[in-house]
Design a protein that fits this description.
The chain has about 260 residues and is an alpha+beta fold. Helix content is about 20%, strand content about 40%. A hairpin with a 2-residue loop joins strand 14 and strand 15.
Length: about 260
């Protein structure tokens, strides 16, 4: 187990007595050698590893025995047990399918479980785990087939072995919800009159007022002229008045004109 101290022994025999040694090139753990000779024909050497590291898991330790006649060797593999750790948990990435990529390390190999909204994900054709083993590494994807906005949310990976359990969460965003699409957002802007239309109602009202005023003034002026002509006009030698003028300015003017004609 990681952090423990381990001692391994190698015994070599032959005639003449062989030299025996361990090859430790590339070993990460602290190590010491202790050689013992057992006469007449056994040479033993002990290798002690202190605070053994997970980085030495699956390391091949080789013992070599050699004399003038020949050489031989024997190997053992270190199996270092340690609790799982999640090294990588990426956001969803579009590939052939959509993938949440992960890398987990642990020995014995951890068991993986996925959770979505506090519930364990049941593997099916649309959501499944694809992974490969390499020594004490597990690498793979939580694979989605055609995910939608319904699948948005937090995804939690749990890795566990007899030495411990670890979790890590990533937010998965696949598609924007329909009511959040930009094309559906309509901004209501009050319409404003254009420069050509601004002020036109005031201008029309002012023009109508001038026209009405001028028409009223003209009617009054004509009425006064009519009265003056009828009052001071000379009679002809036949005893008839000079031709007068008639002005039809509304109903009141027409009634006065009828009264004058009736006096002729």
């Amino acid at each position: 187990m990681e952090g423990d101290n381990v001692t391994v022994s190698c015994n070599g025999s032959g005639s003449p007595l062989p030299e025996v040694d361990w090859t430790v090139s590339g070993l990460h753990s602290i190590n010491t050698h202790l050689s013992n000779v057992y006469w007449p024909n056994i040479h033993s050497i002990n290798l002690t590893l202190f605070n053994i590291s997970r980085d030495d898991n699956n390391f091949q330790l080789t013992c070599i025995a050699e004399n003038v006649v020949g050489m031989t060797n024997s190997s053992i593999q270190l199996n270092v047990q340690f609790p799982p750790v999640i090294l990588r948990l990426a956001e969803p990435e579009q590939r052939h399918d959509t993938c949440i990529e992960f890398t987990v390390r642990g020995y014995p190999h951890p068991k993986l479980r996925w959770f979505y909204k506090q519930k364990e994900i049941l593997q099916n054709d649309y959501i499944r785990t694809d992974m490969d083993f390499y020594q004490d590494y597990l690498e793979g994807c939580l694979t989605f087939q055609n995910p939608t906005h319904i699948n948005n949310g937090n995804y939690t990976l749990e890795a566990s072995n007899p030495l411990g359990t670890v979790t890590k969460t990533v937010y998965g965003h696949f598609l924007m919800a329909p009511d959040m699409e930009e094309k559906d957002i309509v901004e209501l802007v009050p319409s404003m009159p254009s420069d050509g239309d601004s002020g036109r109602p005031d201008e029309d009202t002012f023009g109508v007022s001038i026209a009405v005023g001028l028409a009223g003034f003209a009617c009054v002026l004509l009425l006064v002229l009519f009265v003056l002509i009828n009052k001071y006009g000379r009679r002809s030698k036949f005893g008839m008045k000079a031709p007068g003028f008639a002005c039809l300015c509304g109903v009141g003017v027409m009634e006065e004109a009828k009264a004058v004609i009736g006096l002729i």
